[in-house]
Every structure is written in C-alpha cells, then in structure tokens.
Write the structure tokens for this entry.
Amino acid sequence: MGGFIIFVLLLVGAVFVWRNFMMRGAGRVHDAGGRVLFPGGPTAVAGGVAAAIGGLVLLVVLATSIRAVPVGHALVIFNTVTKSFRLAHQGLTFVTPLVSDTHDYDLRRLEYTMSGNTGEGRKADIDDSLWSPTQEGLQVGIDITVWHHVDPLKIISIHQKIGPDYEEKIIRPAVRSVIRLVISEYAVMDVYSSKRAMIQDEINRKIKGLIEKDGFIVDEVVLRDVRFTPEFAKAIEAKQIAQQSAEQMKYTLEKEQKEAERKVIEARGRANAIEVINKALAQNPNYIKYLYVDKLSDKIQVIVSDQNTIMDLKGILDSHK
C-alpha cells in the first residue's frame, strides 16, 4: 500500500511539472519580423529544461519501481525505512524506489546433485561423491540427487534466518550428515545390492525430518550410484567370477548325478525284464522262439531252423494270442 501511495504522488508531481511548463510557454519573445525567438523568454527556457530533467528522473524512478516477477518465482521486498517485509508473486509488482531491498526466489522444484562424474552436480569440476564408512569400516562413495522446493509460506522466514544460499547452508550439510549416519549402519554388500532400496527410503525419510522444519520440502531423494575403492572393486569382481564358476560346477555335478540316476533306473528296468523272461522260459522253453519270431518282420510266415525242422511261424504266433 505504501509503495502504491508513493507511485501516485510521483505521478501527480509529474503532471504538476508538465502543467507548469505549459503555462510558462504562454509568454513568447518575437523579433522585428514576428518570428518566435524564445517561448516565454529565458525564464521559460530554464523551466523547460527543469521540466525535461524532472520528467527524465521520473521515468527512471518509475522504471526501477515496476518489477516483473517470473512464473514460478516470488519476490521478497524489504523496506529499509519501515523495516517491514512483503512478498510479491508472479506478475508485475510495484517496489518503493530507493528504500527497497529485493531478492527473487525460485518456488519450483529444484535439483541438488552430488556426483563423482565430471560435468554433473552443483560442483561439476570435482569429485563430489559422498564417501562414507560402512559397518565394516570400508569406504563407499554415494552419488545422490535431492529434489526439493521452498515452502511458499516460509520464504520471508527463510530470507531472514538463512538467506538465498540456503542450499549450501542447509541442503548440502543435511545430506552429508544423513548419508554418513545411514551408511555406517549397513554392511558393504547391503549397500551394493540387496538392501539398496531400503537404504534409499531411510535416507529420504531422515533428510525430510531434518530440513522440512526450516521450510524446505523434500520431494524425493534418489541414490544414483554406489562407488568403491579400486581395491575393493577388484575383490568384488573376483568374488563374482568365483561364484559364477561355483554355479557352473554345481550345474555340472547335478547334471552328472541325474544321468547316473537315469542309468541306474534303466539298469534296474533291464534286470527286471530279464528276470521276467527267465521265469517265462522256465515255464515254457518255446518262449524264446516266440521272442525271436516277435522281432521278425510281419511278412515272414515260415522259418527253417535246420534241414529237418520247419517252424510254422503263423501257428506259433496264433498259439500265443
């Protein structure tokens, strides 16, 4: 309201100066030929210059008093005379000239990444991974991204107590502290594989509890990558190779065992078959002839076993039906 009143006063002053200039222009100085030499004389010229300067100053003041707040942003305005704060949202807003201190805040979701990859994160020119000891005391590096935004209702409080560089003062220290606290409670292989999702959820929950009370809303925490020292990385690779070899050996042994079991079952089947045949032969010696004939082609009807014996194949077959 105070800024709007000053704007109105400036506008009224500009109208007054312009009207005064026009009134002074009513007196004119002419030469012998009737041509106008000075509109209103020297006094009028001086008034015109003053009016022009005043108008220029007024335009500069007005230009610096009107601010355009971008979409998704908010402008914190501090009046150094009244020592009061005001918040202006997206769009045009009037700022009291000469006595206002302003700062623009982005209310949209922001990304804060800490990574060891060159060109990534807020400190892209250095290895910004978070190295922390595990439960066994082994060092692991964590690449992490925190998506967050400022609570619109607490922007003025944040500006008063923390300042615009809140990411370096609040977000980064909180993330580093939580990472070291959580990682130290897990074994290195938990971080590497089996419990990674659980660790991410715990980190997310603890970061939210730590910084949201200050007016920062955490949307999501993403565990981007896990890094190991070169020595431990080689040890993991060797262990994986050994595990693959063990799995292959286990597969081979199981395959051979199944093949042996199959052969045993097959041998038992043959033995049982032989036992049945032996019993049949003991009861009927001609059964061996039947088995022989059964293996022959269906087209064969007569078999000559020697010079004096002719077997009627059809009769033998019919007798066993």
Observations:
- The longest strand covers residues 66-79.
- The CA atoms of residues 98 and 320 lie 125 Å apart.
- The radius of gyration is 49 Å.
- Residues 230-283 form the longest helix (54 residues).
